[in-house]
Design a protein that fits this description.
Low-confidence stretches: none
Oligomer: single chain
Distance between the termini: 45 Å
Number of strands: 16
Order of helices and strands: EEHHHEEEHEEEHHEHEEEHHEEEHE
Protein name: PD-(D/E)XK nuclease superfamily protein
Radius of gyration: 22 Å
Structural class: alpha/beta
Number of domains: 2
Helix content: 25-40%
Strand content: 25-35%
Length: 348
């Protein structure tokens, strides 16, 4: 028998709904975080995929002492209440792992909404440290605690596993064909807004300026991770030349990470991350080149680093340019930029 559940909105329109649409919450962050907790409690395959994410696996091994600790029971708590010297606090997600009723380890997840990429590293670190302070979350006092920061862009945080919402979407996409609940979770994230897609714009175009040489040599681009430089996640990126803004190449974006290049600890920690050896070498070259040739300003704030493919580069012999070149960022459709009969392209 085929059955359908529909949920009526305030305008009287009925949508096909799932259990995720019944999750209460006034904003994106609590709803999508509760949804993640629920699906992790019901899908062992998705939970194990989360544990296999390289940043998580590395921190688990460092804290628990095993790469793949065995467990036969999990308990997932959303918005677990704790108490520290400032009063009550709420941990977004806590996943406790047990074997034969004995504690094995616990994940404590600090989640930021997929659209909210501007939380500082310090604020995330301080919040997580409150959670893992002994006695604050009494339910995990007997567990080795593995802290996770779940954010829009990858962060370089000491002793904290950095997971992005795109990581979650990717592992959900892999398991959705075999698990109806995971498929419904994936569609729920899509309905929460365009920010949950693999990418939000096909092409991001920015002026390369004084860093053009370093970008060309390393396939790395960086910009301040601040509200004024808040870009939508692109599939590819193009760098506009001075003058008319001609674009000669389209680079595929492999990864995006955020850290403060003027912070020695953060700068050294990035080379202990899950980046490949080639990516680490290219990033080191970019950092050294920019230190000398361009600098970082007196910001003392995180920069967003775009790790670009060295192989998947589309050359644009017709050098398309925007209708009007501007100082800031622009977005374009891939089909428009690739059309050799359009030397001048309209921004999307």
């Amino acid at each position: 028998m085929k059955a359908l559940f529909r949920l009526y909105e305030s305008d009287g329109f009925a949508n096909t709904a799932t259990v995720f649409d019944l999750i209460a919450g006034s904003g994106r962050e609590p709803r999508q975080t509760k949804a993640l907790g629920y699906v992790l409690s019901k899908s062992p395959a998705l939970l194990r995929a989360l544990l296999r994410i390289s940043s998580v696996a590395r921190v688990v091994k460092g804290i628990v002492g095993q790469k793949n600790p065995k467990f036969d029971q999990i308990i997932v708590d959303a918005e677990m209440i704790g108490l520290d010297n400032t009063g009550k606090i709420r941990a977004d997600l806590v996943v406790r792992f047990l074997r034969g009723h004995a504690p094995v380890f616990a994940l404590v997840i600090e989640a930021k909404t997929a659209k909210g990429s501007n939380a500082s590293d310090d604020s995330i670190i301080n919040q997580v440290r409150r959670y893992v302070t002994p006695g604050v979350l009494t339910a995990v006092k007997a567990f080795p605690v593995v802290p996770i920061a779940l954010t829009r862009t990858k962060r370089i945080l000491p002793d904290i596993a950095s997971v992005t919402w795109n990581d979650i979407r990717l592992i959900a996409h892999q398991h959705a064909p075999k698990d109806q609940l995971v498929g419904e979770f994936l569609r729920f994230l899509q309905r929460m807004g365009n920010d949950m897609q693999f990418y939000e714009r096909e092409i991001l175009s920015v002026p390369a300026g004084g860093t053009a040489k370093a970008i060309e040599e390393t396939c790395i681009h960086a910009c301040p991770d601040t509200p004024s430089f808040s870009y939508k996640t692109p599939l590819r990126i193009a760098f506009r030349e001075k003058g008319g803004g001609a674009m000669s190449k389209l680079y595929r974006v492999l990864d995006i990470i955020s850290f403060d290049p003027l912070d020695p600890v953060a700068r050294s920690s990035v080379f202990e991350s899950s980046l490949s050896n080639d990516e680490k070498e290219r990033l080191a070259h970019y950092l050294e080149a920019r230190d000398v040739e361009f600098g970082w300003g007196d910001r003392g704030a995180p920069f967003r680093f775009y790790i670009l493919s060295t192989d998947d580069i589309i050359h644009l012999p017709h050098s398309p340019r925007p209708v009007k070149n501007i100082q800031g960022h622009m977005y374009f459709r891939l089909c428009d930029v690739l059309d050799s009969e359009k030397p001048v392209v309209q921004s999307a």
